[in-house]
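Bumping my old thread because nobody answered last time. Still need a sequence for this structure:
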């Protein structure tokens, strides 16, 4: 007690954090001392010293309805009192209601499998894809094709699908059967190619890989509608159309990872709705509960699910269990979260706010560090370069310096890309969909002041 009284609460918390807590993917030097969040409301987080920050990344792109929603706490609380748990080897009301609601949001006929995280939703998708192919007699189909720079999770299978090399170092060997192709990074397309032609070439790389591997060995393609964490890489419409066509032509399932793009982040219910494609499997997490509780889902086309009803060899059903997946309180909270998104028209608002931010930032294209400004709904990426002509990525020290200065002015933004490929140079903005007009103006004013201040020369 004597020692504690000499220190204030935050110093003590930092000490204990250093002693007991292992942080997520952040170099020790950058996460020590950590920002220790204490409370949050709307788009703003307050640390334990009382400093306020606008959370321009919605945590990890997930707090879609913003912080401080009492209705969500109430929904979970009431459900915990009624039925806190029952396994989904059988069923319960909140899971049934949420599965029905997700079908409505997807706008198509899907059956829903619940897990707790984006990684787990993708793991379930991989197992479903392999088993489905087996059960329709396609016994060699076990491979998956994903894109470089894409991210699909941290567990060994989802990490194998991930196309960012630096995340894999020291964890190999990973899971076999995952192949990668280049993403449609139109900003860095070869000279002389139109965006459309370049995108068609990128899609063709998927078909070439399928053909070279032997189509009869490929189970599925997995991709985000837009690569988000890998640097906001937005495909042209022709790319998505062609990918869908290629998958269908070769009997390959198309898994769309909506972990970030889902639940209004893209300005539509789901990211793939922007492209009018119909995935075979859709994975989702983050915005499903706005991250108030863990919950994820793997939505599977009805006719794929039908194949799992065949119990003729006793192994026909999906032999996959997730103890916590579809927890009743998480499902009840998710339902309320979706109601808030609907009642407050937050999907439409994401589109409006995204356009406002992208519009304001496109004026920065003349800045010597700004190579490209990209957006998809309420996801904005600003690619920083050291040289506009060669597009050489900006030094990491510059990227980190800008982020640190924004933070010192009360604005949290993100840094994304792939360190190994030298592209860790994309600043990202993904504030809550519920952000007020003043919040968005604060993001614009603060970021512009930083870039046009000490980083102008
Ligand atoms: N897919 C995508 C596109 C993601 O962005 C993430 C998380 N950032 C995941 C999957 C994995 O989600 P989780 O961290 O919940 O396992």
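Sorry it took so long. Here it is:
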């Amino acid at each position: 007690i004597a020692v504690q009284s000499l220190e204030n609460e935050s110093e003590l918390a930092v000490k204990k954090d250093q002693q007991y807590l292992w942080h997520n993917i952040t170099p020790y030097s950058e996460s020590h001392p950590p920002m220790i969040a204490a409370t949050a409301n709307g788009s703003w987080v307050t640390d334990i010293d009382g400093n306020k920050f606008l959370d321009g990344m919605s945590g990890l792109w997930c707090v879609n309805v913003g912080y401080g929603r009492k209705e969500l706490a109430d929904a979970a609380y009431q459900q915990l009192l009624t039925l806190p748990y029952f396994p989904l080897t059988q069923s319960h009301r909140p899971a049934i209601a949420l599965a029905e609601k997700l079908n409505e949001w997807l706008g198509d006929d899907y059956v829903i499998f619940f897990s707790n995280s984006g990684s787990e939703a993708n793991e379930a998708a991989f197992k479903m894809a392999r088993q489905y192919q087996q059960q329709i007699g396609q016994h060699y189909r076990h491979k998956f094709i994903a894109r470089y720079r894409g991210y699909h999770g941290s567990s060994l299978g989802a990490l194998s699908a991930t196309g960012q090399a630096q995340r894999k170092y020291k964890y190999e060997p990973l899971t076999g059967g995952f192949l990668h192709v280049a993403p449609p990074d139109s900003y860095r397309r070869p000279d002389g190619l139109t965006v459309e032609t370049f995108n068609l070439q990128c899609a063709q790389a998927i078909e070439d890989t399928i053909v070279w591997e032997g189509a009869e060995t490929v189970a599925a393609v997995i991709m985000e509608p837009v690569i988000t964490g890998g640097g906001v890489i937005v495909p042209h419409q022709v790319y998505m159309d062609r990918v869908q066509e290629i998958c269908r032509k070769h009997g390959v399932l198309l898994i769309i990872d909506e972990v970030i793009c889902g639940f209004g982040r893209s300005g539509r219910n789901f990211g793939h709705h922007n492209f009018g494609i119909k995935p075979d499997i859709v994975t989702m997490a983050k915005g499903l509960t706005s991250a108030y509780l863990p919950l994820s889902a793997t939505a599977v086309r009805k006719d794929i699910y039908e194949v799992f009803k065949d119990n003729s060899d006793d192994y026909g059903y999906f032999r996959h269990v997730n103890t916590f997946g579809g927890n009743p309180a998480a499902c009840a909270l998710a339902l309320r979260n979706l109601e808030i998104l609907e009642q407050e028209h937050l999907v439409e608002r994401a589109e409006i706010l995204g356009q406002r931010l992208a519009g304001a930032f496109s004026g920065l294209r003349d800045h010597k560090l700004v190579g490209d400004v990209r957006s998809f709904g309420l996801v904005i990426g600003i690619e920083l370069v050291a040289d506009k002509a060669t597009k050489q990525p900006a030094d990491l020290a510059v990227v980190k310096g800008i982020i640190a200065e924004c933070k010192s002015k009360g604005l949290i933004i993100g840094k994304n890309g792939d360190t190994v490929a030298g592209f860790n140079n994309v600043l990202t903005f993904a504030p809550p969909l519920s952000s007020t007009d003043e919040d968005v103006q604060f993001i614009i004013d603060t970021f512009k002041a930083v870039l046009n201040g000490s980083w102008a020369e």
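The pocket of 4'-deoxy-4'-aminopyridoxal-5'-phosphate is lined by residues 60, 117-119, 122, 151-154, 224, 229, 257, 259-260, 285 (CB under 6 Å). Let me know if any region looks off to you.
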